[in-house]
Write the structure tokens for this entry.
Amino acid sequence: MKGESVLYALAGVGLILLLFLSTHWLGPLGAFTNMLAAFPVAYLTLRFGLVTGGTTLLLAASAVWFLAGLTPLISYLGLFGAPSLCLPWLLGRAKPWDLAIFKSTLVGLGLAGVLLLAYLQVSGQTFGALQERYLQAEIDLAMQTYTAAGLSDSQLAELKVFATQAADFIRVTFVGLYVVGILAIHAVTLLVVHGFKGERWSIAGVAFAQWHLPPQLVWVLIAAGFALLVPLPAAPLIGRNLLAVLLPLYFVQGLAVLSCFLHRKKWSSAIKWLVYFLVFILNPLPLLVVGVGIFDLWIDFRRPRPKV
């Protein structure tokens, strides 16, 4: 490693610690900054190579272990290890960005599975007990944040009911939500890296406005929906977890359709970002975007229409 890359690596370690451990002082808001924790290593890997990126990841992992312990270390490697190294490595080899995300996600899931099994073996815990401890810790953290915000007792009681209901939902869709979480981290890492790439490298693949899922995937979506009606304990569980993965993916395809529409309208960047912001926060727009993503297979919203 040369002098410049060493300085960047050390700065990257400090930035990773700030981003990954931000949930400790920002509470639930720290989840947004936490999502960026793979970016420093991904950027350094693309700019200086795999040795610099790998060294930075190793130093950051060691620092997380020293400052926070074994469980946060496993969480860091399981969530951010693959998008930190595997994703930029694939992008650097001119793999299409969507294929790079897919392959890197598979690597990340495999790594997370190995780390989880090793941790359960060493700690002597079951997956169910570990899951319950995690959910209770998240509820306690959320309630501490709300209490510090000075909310009334009645408001705190309502929020606790909501948090408990959310925990029940997470409990039955944990695997699917974990997959979506890794996919989201990959997507965020790609977006931020794309913003910082300048003229140093290019990212291969189709433009987002023309991106779509494989058509055959819609049959998996339909099967997952019918699985909720099957009177067997395992079938609804599998169906919920599949839907937890597939519906966000079709939401992204709906965003691609929206992006194509906005590109054709040639509106200003401010209006485009306002539209995207409203799509995320204003009900029922997210559901409509999911529907657009699903029915794009048959209607093909992006096909040019002849002007009347």
In short: The chain has two domains: 1-121+176-200, 206-308. Residues 51 and 123 are 32 Å apart (CA to CA). DSSP finds 14 helices and no strands in the chain. The mean pLDDT is 88.
